[in-house]
Amino acid sequence: MKPAKSLHQIFGRLQFSRLWDIVHLKRIDRYIIGKFLGTYVFLLLIIIVISIIIDFNEKIDKLTASGAPTKAIVVDYYMNFVPYFVNLFSPLFVFIAVIFFTSKLADGSEIIAMKSTGMSFRRLLRPYMISAALIATITLLLGLYVIPRGNVARVNFENTYVKKKKITTAENLQLQVDKGVVAFLQHFDNEMKNGYGFSLDSFKDKKLVSHLTAQQVQYDTLSSHKYHWTLHSVEIRTFNGMREKVSYHETLDSTITIEPADLVNTRGQQETMTSPELRNYIERQRQRGAAGLAAFEVEYHKRIAVPFAAFILTLIGVSLSSEKRKGGGMGTSIGIGLALSFSYILFQTVSASFSVNGGWPPILAAWIPNILFAIIAFVLYKRTPQ
């Protein structure tokens, strides 16, 4: 007589069977995934070519007038413009791809044939969500680590040849460089890495214990150590109760935890940092009491929020286009899809502007488009015949 199987063995087999059903791709899954990704890549190629042509025609006068080298236009700008553009509008491409090929399947009665075999709408969504997960993962990794590196050359090119508003100086800067240590700089030139009108105040128990002033400061770019500054015409006043000690120095080498990047925010600087660098920069600037960090915080949260839109817009797209329509057919589905996808991108831009200029919490500005469109996706999913 064979021994009875334990509950642990039975439960383990059931769990493995369920996991295998999810991981194992049937022919219909591979078919839909191939259609999804193939349409997505095809649309990417078409829209990228069109976008480059439009962008070049729009900027050709500025590029010619500024004397931008051909190599810089191709390598520094457009070679980095393409991945930036793809990542920025990835939700739009996902949505259009889903609407386009799913409407085609519905018009060809292929979805009706799938459902006639007993396939539920929920089961039909599986290959779509696998494809969306693949696209979201690639988009996330590119946005967090890869694209910011390429954006350095692209942003520098735009600031030099297109916008011609490269910010290289800053005035009247005040920031906390350490606990109880506050620095002030009247003027700083990021090109020369020097400034004038510098002071450094140290406080202990809310009392001033030392006051340093320097007519000129120079950041040492050749030093192997970070935060190395050379101060000129230095006066140091130290306070001990009612006593005061004054010392003078012609030049003084000092370590001050400030970098030129902390003093001058160039246009589009947040796009040139990887997410770990961006997070560290925000934390460091917040500790120093710096203002104007909303654009950096929105960029940080948006890089995480945008990839999730692939799942939301995929669900909306399948729900809208999986039924065969008598009036309008594919054109109606594509029209609705384009309106929704462009409204998503528009709302994303508007919410970011409200955060930068209107005081909205940056995390809310980055996620509120996903929240609202997730509600739309849920309503459409419930209304779709299961």
Structure characteristics:
single chain; 386 residues; alpha+beta; 2 domains; elongated
Structure summary:
This protein has about 375 residues and is of the alpha+beta class. The protein is about 60% helix and about 20% strand. Strand 2 (about 180-190) and strand 3 (about 195-205) form a beta hairpin.
Number of strands: 6
Count of helical regions? 11
Please state the average pLDDT score. Answer: 82
Strand order of the largest sheet: 1-2-3-4-5-6
Radius of gyration equals 29 Å
Show unreliable segments.
16-20
Shape: elongated
Distance between the termini: 46 Å
Largest sheet descriptor: 6 strands, antiparallel
Summing up helix and strand content along with how strands pair, one would put the structural category as alpha+beta
Order of helix and strand elements from N to C terminus: HHHHHHEEEEEEHHHHH
Strand content: 15-25%
Overall number of structural domains: 2
The percentage helix is 55-70%
Walkthrough of the structure:
The protein is of the alpha+beta class and 386 residues long. The chain folds into 2 domains: 7-163 and 296-383, no CATH class; 169-264, no CATH class. It has helices spanning 7-23, 27-66, 70-88, 90-107, 110-116, 121-162, 260-263, 275-287, 294-321, 330-358, 362-383; strands at 169-178, 181-189, 194-204, 207-219, 228-240, 243-255. The chain has a 6-stranded antiparallel beta sheet with strand order 1-2-3-4-5-6, with no helix packed on it. A hairpin with a 2-residue loop joins strand 5 and strand 6. Helix 4 (90-107) runs parallel beside helix 9. The longest helix is centred in the middle third of the chain and has 42 residues, at 121-162. The radius of gyration is 29 Å and the shape is elongated. The two termini are 46 Å apart. Residues 16-20 have low confidence and may be disordered.
